[in-house]
Amino acid sequence: MCDARGTFRENFMNKMLELSGGDVSLGCHLGYEAADYHGVSLQMLNSKVGRAGSVVTSGRLASSSLSTLVGDTYDQILETTVEQLYRTSPDYSYRAHNIRHVQDYLDYFHIVVDAAAQIIEGRKITHALFYCVPHLFYDTVFYEVARAMGVKIAILSWSQFDGRFFSMRDVSHLGNFDPTQVNASPYPIDQGSVPDLFYMQDSWQREGKTGRISLKVITQLLKHLVLHDPLKLLNPFAISRDVKRISKLYSSLPDWRDPFAKFFHTNELGYFEYLAQFEGKSVDLNQKYIYVPLHNQPEMSTSALGGKFRDQALLIEALARDLPQGWKIFVKENPRQGSYARGPMFFHRLNRIPSVEIMPSNANTHALSKNAQFVASVTGTVGWEAIRQGTPAMVFGAAWYSSLEGVVHYRPGLDFIEIARTKINHDKLQSDAGALFAKSHKGVIEQLFFPLLPDLDHDKNILDVAQTTLGLLREEIEPTFMG
After folding, report:
1. d(CA 259, CA 338)
2. Predicted confidence band at 63 (pLDDT cuts at 50, 70, 90)?
3. Is 233 helix (H, G, I), strand (E, B) or coil?
4. CA distances from 389 to 292, 393, 461 (A)
5. Which of 279, 290, 271 is nearest to 337 (CA)?
6. Quick check: 42 and 31 in contact, CB under 8 A?
């Protein structure tokens, strides 16, 4: 079984099958219309199908499939998959599914679990290959069912090393390896440098011009009213009040923060109005604090890799319980975030913690990281940035850099003062990173990295990735991360 959406990943899959010389046969292809099953249609609950039809519209309950996920991890799997399905609910997407009630989510989850189990059993699947860490509803269900049924799994993941990728057999293994067992050259890191993240803009780290309302935003407001509150269209005074609120909001936020460029909802309006009150806040870096930059949600970094700490308020509450006297927790919102997973109750939980301070959007994340006692994150790249600067990092989920020098895994009762005193050995960090680089594989598996590698030989790249995946399936190549 192979999860390969789009031509880009299908090229890897087809080349791997060709290289196998018939040793590997494709029992089930999850992808788009050209695949056996249209995986994303399970997320959207629409009628798009693959060549074998729909996953869920036919078949009867199998006698054995129900037990595949009903175990110790059932609750966590259910929470993870339901959250991934909720990301396309009407509150967050114009192209939404029609599920409304928690029981409907439970029912749909069990229907898809049973259907996936029957497909895996009926097609005699022995191995499963995922070109990305499962982080949507459909791929997570197929991954968890395959794992429960004893299918051998290979998962690929992009890396921070240019032109390289990672591999593992279980999502929870990400970041887990022993650098001392790898003989490799150090990976050069300029001490005090920060990684060049093309998806993060410099303008996000400094003060700038404020924004202004546009005709496009008014259109998004009207679209929202048509779908959710059509009677309000007959009340021009109410619409005028909304426009004034939106205009005031834009004049309070930096121009790069465009709250309603793609989607308007009253939840979004309330969320951004809450954040706007912190825009004029001054930041004192000369005190003891833990820096917690929030992840963008919904994303792989939390929903797939965070476990129970996909709830980032829980992470902050856990820190607060062991926080030394006089310390603060500086929380900065992700510049890409909207109201998803940031309802009023989320901020009410944070407001109940006296040590928490919300940072303005233009607070410099590099300075916050460098001057912190340590940084804390589910799996965020801020940890990789911090240890390069000599600041310890605490992770709560499966972060790719978890086994490097200067990183500690959270557990209750840790001595935060002792962690803050940690002196990061930069030579050891370069040695650990070199070991991880050596354990990674040659190839680019995500199209968004293409602009960074303009001279990439795409035919050679397809061959490199195909050879590695074939070796992983045959167990001739050891995964980057192991249990």
Report:
1. 7
2. low
3. helix
4. 16, 11, 33
5. 271
6. no
In this model, does residue 319 exceed pLDDT 80?
yes
Whole-number mean pLDDT of the chain?
92
Distance CA(360)–CA(444), nearest Å, equals 36
Phi, psi of 223 (to 5 degrees): -65, -40
Cβ proximity of 445 and 131 under 8 Å: yes
Contact predicate 452/162, CB 8 Å: yes
Torsion of CA 437, 440, 441, 444, to 10 degrees: -80
Query: Alpha-carbon distance 111 to 60, whole Å?
Result: 10
The position carrying tokens 């070109």 is 131
- Residue 195 has a pLDDT of 81
- Paired tokens of 50: 């693959």
Q: Three-state SS for 134?
A: coil
Distance CA 307, CA 301 (A): 10
Question: Which string of b and e fits 292-308 if b means at least 16 CB within 10 Å?
Answer: bbbbbbbbbbbbbbbbe
CA distance 483 to 476: 17
User: Which structure tokens are listed for 430?
Assistant: 């370069």
Read off the pLDDT band of 47 (50, 70, 90).
confident
* The residue to which tokens 């939404």 are assigned: 96
* Chain-centroid distance, C-alpha 482: 21
- Residue 418, CA atoms < 13 Å, CB-side half-sphere: 5
Query: Long-range contacts of range 274-281, CB-CB < 8 Å, 24 or more positions apart?
Result: 274/344, 274/347, 275/333, 275/358, 275/361, 276/249, 276/252, 278/358, 278/359, 278/360, 278/361, 279/252, 279/253, 279/360, 279/361, 279/362, 280/360, 281/357, 281/358, 281/359, 281/360
pLDDT class for 246, splitting at 50, 70, 90?
Answer: very high
At residue 34, what is the residue type?
A
Neighbours of 316 (CB within 10 A): 21
Query: Would the pLDDT of 281 be above 80?
Result: yes
Q: What one-letter code names the amino acid at 150?
A: G
User: 269-283: buried (b, 16+ CB within 10 Å) or exposed (e) per residue?
Assistant: bebbbbbbebeeeeb
Select from 118, 166, 132, 169 the least CA-distant residue to 147: 169
Alpha-carbon separation of residue 408 from 320, 362, 412, 422, 434 (angstroms) = 17, 28, 12, 10, 19
pLDDT for 150-200, tens place per residue?
999 999 999 999 899 999 999 999 999 999 999 999 999 999 988 876 666
Is the pTM higher than 0.85? The answer reads: yes
Per the DSSP assignment, residues forming a β-bridge with 50 are 53
Q: What is the pLDDT of residues 188-201, one digit of tens each?
A: 999 998 887 666 66
CB 406 within 8 A of CB 392: yes
